[in-house]
Design goal:
The complex is a heterodimer of chains A (361) and B (291). In chain A, 75% of the residues lie in helices and 1% in strands. Chain A has 18 helices and two strands. Chain B has helices at 2-32, 39-57, 62-88, 95-117, 128-131, 144-165, 167-177, 179-184, 189-215, 222-237, 242-262, 267-281; strands at residues 122-123, 133-136, 139-142, 217-218. In chain B, helix 1 packs parallel to helix 6, helix 2 (39-57) crosses helix 10 and helix 7 crosses helix 9. Classes of the chains: A mainly alpha (361), B mainly alpha (291). The A-B interface holds A 75, 122-123, 125-126, 128-130, 132-134, 136-138, 140-141, 144-145, 148, 259-260, 263, 266-267, 270, 312-313, 315-319, 321-323, 325-326, 329-330, 333 and B 29, 33, 35, 87, 90-91, 95-97, 99-101, 103-112, 114-116, 224, 228, 231-232, 234-235, 239, 265, 268-269, 272, 275-276, 279-280, 283.
Chain lengths: 361, 291
C-alpha cells in the first residue's frame, strides 16, 4: 500500500493514469462492453452513449459548482441559472441571428460572463446564508422570465435546437458518439481550467477566503474581487455545460432553471465529495446512472407488486436520492471520494497527523 | 379606487401567508443560524393533513376549518421538532451541513407527497362564507383574505407574547442576541432550539391550511413556491428579526400585487429587483443588526 501511495505522489504517474482514463473513455464508442443493470445496452449504441454523455455534462456542471462551493466556500442556490443561460442563450442566439454554431457559442459565452459579473457583484454584497437566498431569488427571477416569454423561450414547452445552423456531424441519433466525444473533450477542458484556477494565486486566495475571510482581509488581500472572479469562472463553466446540454438533448425545458435543478447539482457535488475535483466528476456519473436506474426501477413490475408502504417511496427516484443525500451528509462527510480515501488509509496507518489535527481542532 | 383597495387587501392577505412562513424561518435563523429549506415541506404536509381532516369532517363547516387549522399547526410543530431532534441536532454548529440536510429533506419529502397524494392539485372547499365577497369602498374582496389577515395578526401577537413573557421566550431572545453568552451562563440553549423549530413549524402549518384556502387547492409544490418568497422576505426584513419579517411580508406582497396588476404580471420580478436594491443600499436588511 505504501508503494502505491508513493507512486501516486509522482505527477508523471498521476498524469499517465488520467491520460489512460481519458483514452479509455474516448475508446468506449468503439468497444462492445455490456454493463448489465447500469447501461441500457452495449457501449457503442446511441442509447448508452447518450447516458454517458449526459453523465459527463453533469460532471462538468458539478466541476463548475465545485469552483464556487468546494474551492471558495460560496453556497449558491442559483447555479442552475447559468446552466440555463448557456442552454437557452445558445438556442436563442442561433434562432434569432442565424449565425453558425461557433460564433453563436462565442456570443453566448460573452453574455454569460456579463450576466454572471453583474449578478455576482450584487449577490456578493452579502455572504453566507443570505448569499444562498439571494442567488436563489435571482435564479427564480430567471425562471419566471423564461416561463413568461413563450415567444422567445418556448415557455413551458421548452426551446428546440435550430438544427439548420449546427454542423451535420452533431445532429442525428447516429451521431451521438460525436456528441459523446465532444462532451469528453469539454469535460477535460473544464477539468483543466478548474485545476488551473485552483492552483493560481486567485485560487489560493479564494480557498483562504473560504477558511477565514477576516484573516485574508487583514493580510491586505481583496476577498471580494477574488470571490467575484471565482463566481464568474464557475458560472461561465456552467454556461458551457448548458450549451453542451442543448446540443446533446436537442433542446432545453424550464426544468433546467428550476430550484430543484440547482439542488440536484448540490446533491451531485456532496455525493461525490465536497472540495474534490474527482469527487465532482464521479458524483456526476454516479448521479446520472442512479437517476436513470431508479426511474427504471420505479416503473418495474417488481415495485408495482409491493404493498403501498414500500411501493410509494420506491417509485419516487427523488425520494431515494434525497434520503441517500441526507445519509451521506450525516454519516459520510467526504462523499464517495472521502470514503475511498478513508478505506485506503485505514489499511496503512490510523490516519495522517494532519487529519487528526483537523479533527481535534 | 376600488381596484386599489382590492389589491391592497389581497396583498395584505398574501403578506399574511408570507409572514406565517417567514416568521419561523427568521426565528430559526436568528437563534441557530440554520437556513431551513424543509420549511416549505412542513407547510405542504400540514396543508395535506388539514385537507384530509376537513374532508373527513365535512368540508364546509367552520368547525371543520378550525379543527383543520389545529391539526395543521400540530402537524407542522411535530414534524419540525422531529426534524430538529433527529437531523439538525446531530450537526450542531455545522451550518452548511445543516442546510444540506434540510435540502435533502425537502427533496425527499416533496417526492414522497407526490407519491402519496399525486402531483395534480387537489381542489378544496371551505365554509361557504370564505368563497363569498364583501364590498369595501366599492371593492369586492374575497372573504378568505380577512381570515388570513386575522389569523396572521393573532399568530404574530402570540409569538410576541411568548417571546416577552415566558422563560423560553427570554432564553430565545437572549440567544438571538448572543448565544455563546447564554450558554456560558449555564442555560441549555438546545432545548430552546427545539421550541423554536416547533413554533416555526406550527406557524408554517397554519400557513399551509390557510394557503390551501387562498389558492383554492393543495399540491406538493405549494410549500416550495411560497418558501422562495419567504426567503426574500426574511432577507429584506433582516435575518433573525420578527418585526422585520412582518413589515417585509406586507411590503413584498402588496408590491407584488400592484406590479402584477399595473405592470403586466411582473410582480415576481419586481420583488427580486426590490431585493437587489435593498442589498445594494442596506445589505443587512431593513431591521437587521449590523454584522
Amino acid at each position: 500500500m505504501n508503494t502505491v501511495r508513493r507512486l501516486w505522489a509522482k505527477p508523471a504517474v498521476r498524469w499517465g493514469l488520467a491520460g489512460a482514463l481519458v483514452a479509455f473513455a474516448a475508446a468506449l464508442p468503439l468497444l462492445n462492453i455490456v454493463v448489465p443493470g447500469v447501461l441500457p445496452g452495449p457501449t457503442y449504441t446511441p442509447g448508452a452513449l447518450q447516458i454517458l454523455a449526459l453523465a459527463l455534462i453533469f460532471s462538468a456542471l458539478a466541476l463548475s459548482y465545485h469552483v464556487l462551493f468546494g474551492v471558495s466556500g460560496m453556497l449558491s442556490f442559483g447555479h442552475a441559472l447559468y446552466f440555463a443561460v448557456g442552454a437557452y442563450g445558445l438556442g436563442i442566439v442561433l434562432e434569432r441571428t442565424g449565425l453558425d454554431l461557433l460564433p453563436a457559442v462565442g456570443i453566448t459565452l460573452a453574455g454569460a460572463i456579463l450576466i454572471a459579473g453583474v449578478l455576482g457583484a450584487i449577490s456578493l454584497r452579502v455572504s453566507g446564508i443570505s448569499f444562498a437566498m439571494v442567488t436563489l431569488a435571482f435564479a427564480q427571477a430567471g425562471s419566471v422570465l423564461i416561463r413568461r416569454n413563450p415567444g422567445v423561450t418556448g415557455g413551458e414547452e421548452g426551446l428546440g435546437l435550430p438544427t439548420a445552423q449546427v454542423p451535420d456531424w452533431l445532429v442525428g441519433v447516429a451521431d451521438t458518439r460525436n456528441l459523446y466525444w465532444l462532451a469528453l473533450a469539454v469535460i477535460v477542458v473544464v477539468f483543466l481550467v478548474v485545476r488551473w484556477f485552483e492552483r493560481s494565486r486567485a485560487g489560493h486566495v479564494a480557498a483562504a477566503v473560504r477558511e477565514n475571510e477576516l484573516r485574508v482581509r487583514v493580510l491586505g488581500l481583496p476577498p471580494l474581487r477574488v470571490k467575484l472572479l471565482a463566481f464568474v469562472v464557475g458560472s461561465t463553466l456552467a454556461a458551457v455545460s448548458g450549451m453542451l446540454f442543448l446540443l446533446l438533448q436537442s433542446g432545453v425545458t424550464p426544468r433546467a432553471i428550476s430550484a430543484d435543478f440547482t439542488l440536484t447539482i448540490l446533491v451531485i457535488v456532496v455525493l461525490g465529495g465536497v472540495g474534490s475535483r474527482w469527487g465532482a466528476v464521479i458524483g456526476g456519473i454516479v448521479y446520472t446512472i442512479l437517476d436513470q436506474r431508479l426511474t427504471a426501477l420505479a416503473g418495474s413490475e417488481w415495485v408495482d407488486a409491493l404493498p403501498a408502504v414500500l411501493r410509494i417511496p420506491l417509485s419516487e427516484p427523488l425520494f431515494i436520492l434525497g434520503t441517500l443525500f441526507i445519509l451521506v451528509v450525516l454519516f459520510l462527510p467526504g462523499g464517495i471520494v472521502g470514503l475511498a480515501g478513508r478505506v485506503g488509509r485505514r489499511r496503512t496507518t490510523t490516519g495522517d497527523a494532519r487529519d487528526r489535527l483537523e479533527e481535534t481542532t | 379606487m376600488s381596484t386599489v383597495v382590492l389589491l391592497l387587501v389581497t396583498g395584505l392577505g398574501l403578506g399574511a401567508l408570507y409572514f406565517l412562513v417567514a416568521s419561523g424561518l427568521s426565528l430559526i435563523y436568528g437563534l441557530m443560524g440554520v437556513l431551513n429549506f424543509a420549511h416549505g415541506s412542513f407547510l405542504t404536509f400540514a396543508a395535506f393533513l388539514g385537507w384530509e381532516t376537513a374532508r373527513a369532517l365535512g368540508a364546509d363547516t367552520w368547525g371543520a376549518l378550525g379543527v383543520a387549522l389545529l391539526v395543521g399547526a400540530a402537524a407542522g410543530a411535530i414534524v419540525a421538532a422531529g426534524t430538529e431532534l433527529l437531523l439538525i441536532r446531530r450537526l450542531y454548529e455545522r451550518h452548511i451541513e445543516q442546510v444540506l440536510v434540510t435540502v435533502g429533506l425537502a427533496l425527499a419529502s416533496v417526492a414522497l407527497f407526490d407519491g402519496i397524494w399525486g402531483t395534480d392539485p387537489q381542489f378544496i372547499r371551505g365554509p361557504a362564507w370564505l368563497a363569498e365577497t364583501t364590498e369595501i369602498l366599492g371593492a369586492r374582496i374575497p372573504n378568505n383574505r380577512f381570515l388570513l389577515i386575522a389569523v396572521a395578526v393573532v399568530v404574530l401577537l402570540l409569538i410576541v407574547l411568548f417571546l416577552r413573557f415566558t422563560r423560553y421566550g427570554l432564553i430565545i431572545r437572549a440567544g438571538v442576541e448572543n448565544r455563546s453568552m447564554v450558554t456560558a451562563l449555564g442555560i441549555d440553549v438546545r432545548r430552546a432550539f427545539t421550541v423554536v423549530f416547533a413554533i416555526g413549524g406550527a406557524a408554517a402549518g397554519i400557513g399551509g391550511v390557510l394557503a390551501s384556502h387562498y389558492f383554492g387547492y393543495v399540491s406538493p409544490q405549494l410549500g416550495g413556491s411560497l418558501l422562495i418568497f419567504a426567503f426574500i422576505v426574511t432577507v429584506i426584513g433582516g435575518l433573525g428579526s420578527l418585526p422585520g419579517a412582518a413589515v417585509a411580508s406586507v411590503v413584498v406582497a402588496v408590491l407584488q400585487q400592484f406590479a402584477n396588476f399595473y405592470l403586466g404580471g411582473t410582480g415576481d420580478l419586481v420583488v427580486v429587483l426590490l431585493l437587489a436594491v435593498v442589498l445594494l443600499v442596506r445589505p443587512r436588511g431593513l431591521f437587521g443588526r449590523a454584522a
